[in-house]
Write a structure and sequence with these properties.
The complex is a heterodimer of chains A (about 180) and B (about 80).
Chain A lengths: L9 H23 L2 H16 L11 H20 L24 H4 L3 H12 L3 H12 L4 H8 L3 H28 L1
Helix pairs in contact in A: 1-2, 1-3, 1-6, 2-3, 3-7, 5-8, 6-7, 6-8, 7-8
Chain B lengths: L2 H6 L1 H5 L5 H13 L3 H18 L6 H12 L5
The chains are: A mainly alpha (about 180), B mainly alpha (about 80).
């Protein structure tokens, strides 16, 4: 990695950080499920953005660039862990089997520590390609075009991944709530 | 529209990306099917749940630490 300008303007750094850090942080935590590693990703992304010649300066789509660098930094760490290979990428979206309607209880479930842990576990177990699509579209609320650009894939590929991610998460959460309501 | 077709189009339906004709067929199916409306509502609830649960930011303490590290060029 190169060196940042020794005379980095503190206010400019803080402004860039405040505009983007929460979003990069959420993507990194969601992808990695590890706050210490996510913190390192945020640092890495901003250092790269602030490094001259790093590719960030003068870009019209700063967000896309930042998300892409953050996503790649997360993938590097996931590869090192050698977990969650992407073999499920071409799997079919699951046909909904568990059909209990817990949607009216969803707000209350957020206050429940056990349910929150289940949410985290469910997203962590998605194949990483699906996880990235879900986090960028449904949590960060990027458009299909923006999320596809950040991941370097076509909009139609993004839609396929998003659809699978949603149905996998829906199935898992429905199974969890069904089991909980039975106890 | 069948249940299989509805499920295949579920994300596009949620995102408002279906053409008028397909959307009308989806709504007609949803009005008469017992299962698919549950699949729709729980998928929408799944999205809403994650959107709310994962809204957290960096936080003040981590922000200060990170800014210090970034200004130091990553050496900290």
């Amino acid at each position: 990695m190169g060196h940042t300008d020794a005379e980095l303007d503190g206010e400019a750094v803080a402004a860039l950080f405040d505009a983007w850090a929460d979003r990069i942080w959420r993507l990194a935590v969601g992808m990695l499920g590890d706050e210490a590693e996510a913190e390192d990703v945020v640092q890495e992304v901003f250092l790269k953005a602030l490094t001259r010649g790093g590719g960030f300066e003068g870009r019209s789509s700063a967000g896309t660039w930042l998300y892409r660098v953050a996503h790649n930094a997360c993938l590097d760490r996931l590869r090192k862990r050698r977990r969650h290979a992407t073999e499920a990428l071409d799997g079919e979206a699951p046909f909904p089997r568990v059909l209990v309607d817990w949607s009216a209880r969803a707000d209350r479930l957020l206050l429940d520590g056990e349910a929150r842990a289940e949410l985290d576990a469910a997203v962590a177990e998605l194949p990483e390609t699906l996880r990235a699509a879900f986090l960028l579209r449904d949590v960060e609320e990027l458009s299909t075009a923006e999320a596809a650009a950040a991941l370097g894939i076509t909009p139609s590929a993004l839609k396929v991944r998003l659809h699978r991610a949603r149905l996998l998460l829906r199935e898992r959460l429905s199974t969890y709530f069904l089991e909980r309501s039975a106890t | 529209m069948t249940c299989e077709e509805l499920v295949a189009a579920l994300s596009a339906y949620i995102d408002g990306e279906l053409d008028e004709e397909t959307r009308a067929a989806a709504e007609e199916h949803l009005a008469t099917c017992r299962k698919c409306p549950i699949a729709l509502r729980t998928t929408e609830a799944t999205i809403a749940l994650y959107r709310s649960a994962l809204r957290g930011g960096v936080g003040a303490e981590r922000r200060a630490r990170l800014l210090e590290r970034i200004r130091a060029g990553g050496g900290a």
